[in-house]
């Protein structure tokens, strides 16, 4: 029985590794496409949807932390599952927007420009780090391996929260420059 579980866990970890590499590669490739698809003007609202998703994710992460500290495990699971699902929705909206619209340039000048690029670059780099951490953390919770879940959460949670919050900050800073 343990051998079967070990094989399943290994297959799951392989899948997580593949997704953790494939998602950033696919996003990078899609962002590099110069010819944008025209699927309608509705895609212009996607940055605002993405900002809302990041905001809601940040709130849910903090609420999920509160719930687990209160030992409300079932509610914590539900909230974290919603936050996890919002991550998937974010990715779909992000890809759709960048497939259909040119990138928006930040128009601020002076010191604020350096702040914006620091926020944006740290957000992007840590989003690459957090993806495999969140996938593993969620997986270990899903299979009731709570010790591994707790160990990874110490790293995954603060990075995920930082990525969510900096996503909101970057959105608020570039929002005036969306056409």
Automatic annotation (TrEMBL):
The chain crosses the membrane at residues 12-33, 45-67, 79-99, 114-135, 155-174. Keywords: Membrane, Transmembrane, Transmembrane helix. It holds the Pfam family DUF420. InterPro entries: DUF420. This is DUF420 domain-containing protein. It comes from Emticicia oligotrophica (strain DSM 17448 / CIP 109782 / MTCC 6937 / GPTSA100-15). The lineage of its organism: Bacteria, Pseudomonadati, Bacteroidota, Cytophagia, Cytophagales.
